[in-house]
Amino acid sequence: MTPANLQIVRLSEALPDDLPALQAEAAAEGYRFVEGILEEWDAGRYAGTDGRNTLLAVYHEGALAGIGAVTPDPYDPAPDLLRIRHVYVRPEHRRGGVGRTLASALIQQGLALAPRLSLNAADAGASAFWEAMGFRPDSGGTRRSHLLER
Questions:
Q1: Is residue 1 situated within a structural domain?
Q2: Model confidence over 40-50: pLDDT tens digits?
Q3: Which pTM value belongs to this model?
């Protein structure tokens, strides 16, 4: 259930105006993976109708609170596998349901299209979060820390 003050938006026509501020916050915390969104956006990855490439933003009371994507796994070409990527929630929006809401939407989108989802957790806190969301530790893939199977 999405809290009443959160809105999930699929991004396909324009990136959020305050994405640079979110990316700067992520970089200040040492998370550079958010910068990959711009490169993939410029390459047209999220503009098409291919649901395997989905970029979602979460807004809290109209402000960009988090972002994340589900795409084919760029490190494992298995046709039954998608990857959750570029997930970042701004510090002031953590522990209020934003991350769970975003992760649930990404998982739902991914598992609707593939039976397995992979990801690479950035740190121990992220690992614990994704394990609470149902992922299990997995080192069987390339550049993968966790796997979820439906």
A1: no
A2: 898 888 887 77
A3: 0.92
